[in-house]
Amino acid sequence: MNLDQALEVANAVVSAKFGRRLSDVETAILKGAWNSQTYEQIAETSSYSISYLTRDTGPKLWKMLSQALGESVSKTNFQSALARYGRKVAADLITNGVTRTATIPPPEVLPPSTVLQAAIPSVTPPIPAVTRSIVNSVAESATQSVATSRCDWGEAADVSLFYGRTEELTVLEQWIEIDRCRLIILLGIGGVGKTTLSIKLAQQIARASYFDCVIWRSLRNAPSLESLLSDLVPFVSHQQDTEAAMEQLIYWLRNFRCLVVLDNLETILQAGNRAGQYRSDYEEYGELFRTIGETAHQSCFILTSREKPAEIATLEGIELCVRSLRLTGSLEVTQALIRAKGLFGSDAEKQQLCQLYGCSPLALKIVATCIQDLFDGDIGAFLEQDATVFSSIQVLLDQQFERCSPLEKIVMYWLAINREWSSISELAADIVPTVSKAELLEALESLSWRSLIEKQSGKYTQQAVLMEYVSNHIIQQVCHEIVAQEISILNSHALLKAQGREYAKDAQINQILKPILNHLLTALNSSARIEKQLAQLLLKLQMTSPLEPGYAGGNLFNLLRQLQVDLTSYDFSQLALWQADLRDIDLHNVNFAHSDLSKTVFTETLAIPLTVQFSPDGKFLATGDVDSELRLWLANGKNLLTCKGHTGWIWSIAFSPDGNSLASASEDQTIKLWDLRTGQFYQTLQGHTRPVWSVKFSPDGQMLASSSEDQTLKLWDVYTGSCLRTLEGHTAWVRSIAFSADGKFLASGSDDRTLKLWDVQTGDCLKTLQGHTQQIWSVAFSGGSQPLLASSSSDHTIKLWEIDTGDCLKTLQGHTNWVRTIAFSPDHQTLASGSEDQTIKLWNVQTGQCWQTLRGHKNWVRSMAFSPDGKMLASGSGDHTVKLWDINTGRCSQTLQGYTNRVWSVAFSPVPSDETEAIIASGHDDHTIRFWDIHTGECQHTLRGHTNAVCTVAFSPDGKILASGGSDQTIKFWDIRTMQCRRTLYGHSSRVWAIAFSLDGKTLASASDDHTVKLWDINTGQCRHTFQGHSSWVCSVAFSPEGIIASSGHDQTVKLWNGITGECAHTFIGHTNWVWSIAFSPDGKLLASGSGDHTIKLWDVMTGNCLQTLSGHTSRIWSVAFSRDGKTLASGSSDQTVKLWDVHTGACHCTFHEHTNLVWSIAFSHNGKLLASGSQDETIKLWDVNTGKCLKTLTADRPYERMNITSVRGLTEAQLFSLRALGAIDY
Fold first, then answer.
1. Domain extent for 632
2. Do 507 and 385 have their domain in common?
């Protein structure tokens, strides 16, 4: 259905109900909403006021359409409602076989629920007529499409061969389509066919198009509710919402009609306990199902389970919206299986066989193999034996499993561990000792013949019943080995595959490691006794089988870690630690000497990755980061190479088309060309006068383009390194560039909110494209016969542009924050976008619709790149990770976990008493706050509570409270005496960069990325005021002694605020880059500001005049602070120095040089004799202000401090370097 047809349908139904057509303003709203415009954009193009559209006409329009169509209609779902109407008309037309003016039958009568009737009308208004052209168009599309519902089948099996269950399908369709049930559960023993029936039912409903969307998911790996919601909410909301919250799910279930199928519910229920009770940590599922069943909405959940949860038992009823259907064995299904398996016998014998196994399809499939093998398919011969010994499904599985060969059992174990479809090559890599692929294929064929595994597209897995059976085998055997101090499966199989896909690892922890420890706790009665058993096995392994290939060492490590044992000083030397997960854990003084770490994963020294790129052949991934390092990674996540040479952040990298070279653009104003065979740079291109943001090779590899904060683009000769041409025209930073596929054009995106198209040969600007309302972060060309240009912006949108005309074809909306990066897939059909909102979205280029939202990052997404085959997407984030995503499934398959522990903020305690004078507080990247004794240099306390980097700390004037703010969007108050968190303040919607106490200690001010300053009451924790006026990040906030509030930010301004009215009293303009830090002089007459333009300005607070500009730093300034007497100003910069300035003369009288990376924060001691500086180099330095001497360097323990890696095996030089950088040592 196109826009014209939608308008005609809308006019028809409105005319039939209300006797009039849509007005001009109503038509304008529908047209704008159809094109995904906001009300603000509709107002701009239609000349109607925004308030008129949002408060009057808009709400009335949706209410009118709701009444006309007989269902709830809103701005987000009206397209679906109109399309659904058209499909029903088409269905009526097709059913009756005539081309007449069609009518829609009235909606089915709903169940007698007063709540539901209030939400969705059960009586239909008079049916309107629809024009023949629309009916014919919709009917044609309906007959051409197999399924018009949006579908996501997850890991649903192929059920093309489906037998029987006609009666059950009829009942279920009646419940769903006619009775409008909200929650249905299919119950039955394992193997009875619940999964198959649920898939078949969902497929039939999808074809009938009764629902907007259909999603099928298995719970066999026991995902957390948060994980499930993060999967469901984006899909059912058409990717408009990514918040993993129950209320959000209900909202979208009301707006769209969705069918959600959840298979294997019993996985999250307790075993060996009263039926229907949830496992620990899964109780929230009960609340979800209760809410689904009780709350009015137009969707339906279908669950399959071996037992009924208590909530459903309470809510269900034959006349209610919650119902259950118990499946029993089906004679029709099992007899069809007998025929398919080629068994023979009389009708009576076939029926006897089916009834012997309760007409269970799974049991019949398995026993049929036995009959073929032992009795040549003769049912009668089989029944003459004592067949009743096989009648229990458990006994049958035992018998069949015992008949497997040793290699077949090994394969069965690995399939249960992998818990997903596995290829032959993956299984071959797992098995130790190795077997030939021919042997492995023979074992797989045998298992398939025994009906013990499933095969699909060259990959293998197990049915849920079998996977559970084999998993229990593994758990019982491992527990026996640990108690009996034996090693068999512990060495032949990895209980956790640390190098595997992220979602599979989560399942292995929940379904294997945790149950093993739970069983051991029952057997041994305490965690201490479990640790003792594991430690003894570890010692036995070292004494009897040092360095023997296998998984025992890694398994014991992972079990100890899962048990949350303090591993300090543990000895893992002389062991193969395959699949051990050493990430995100402190391993101080641990001994790994002479160990095999070839299949181990550990934390890398990867700083925040600003740029990621795949090599042209897809074998390597390169990253550039804020520690000025370039890294080359293998596809398995192994760090192959670390390249050093830049002295500033690396903003952009690009592979040459032949893959032999890499170009990098840096904050240090240079571009470097690197030889990837040696890791050395062979050329440095200089010419830009400010940081370089983007670099790209031309498609032929002959030319390099770059863009910079100096507002220019440059074209370089790759071979000579000479600048061929400088392109000028932008009036602000140029953040991104891209070559067209043919190399003739260069596109650029700038902070001046424009895109420019340049002729590469002449350097002429061919077009200037305007439309974005804020800075442009990223540009990209698509290839193909009709190439497009895409751009992303701080205005939260992505735009697609027609290159020849310069017209904006589409505006893609859905992100809720800056869109930092975009990339086209190699087939040009998908556009990926990464945002400050921590999500990645995948867009259909042709339709402009978001078809997938990838969640997993815990901070902004700065860079992305598709693999050359288009199957993977790499993303780099402020959470110190690079993630690799499977495009087909939308799942994260691998995470490269980085660690740096920059010091974001330092503060001296203000109280000059003997007890607290020597205290410094610091905020760190590792989510902690540390307290330091400046006399000893020791860390006295570490406070944990934030869930992301701690960006700012401040003491209250009386020194009794420490406040902290961070990237987790919260502010915390800590009691200095008890070192406990007293209160957490919520309100900001993005990271908190800065906080400051008022002089009387009653108020706290906070500055945030959400463009606001907030004032908080210290005693109550309530937000008193929110100051809005900055147009971008607010980076700093300060109180004057008189209570004036100042703030500064990314918009290059300093603002003074009236604390009572919340009004902006003054705006200081003069800096030409963002203003990161401000400070009042002690007398309140001066305000100092430090900026990215390399200068410090001193402002007269009363007049707003700039009194002095202090120049001397050679890079961005991150922090400024006045001494207590107001005579000296200190500043910290990206040039790795701290400077002291004479406030009166403006002269720099001292420069401190010992930091090796940028200086984030500085603070004077109470007596003014000391200065503390916190740096990206992970240190705090204490300086004597008078002499300029560094008195002490304070450093927190790194994750691998004093970890012994003497003579370890299986690591690259880059990996060894990374381990040493994190504290490991060689003896």
1. 609-897
2. no
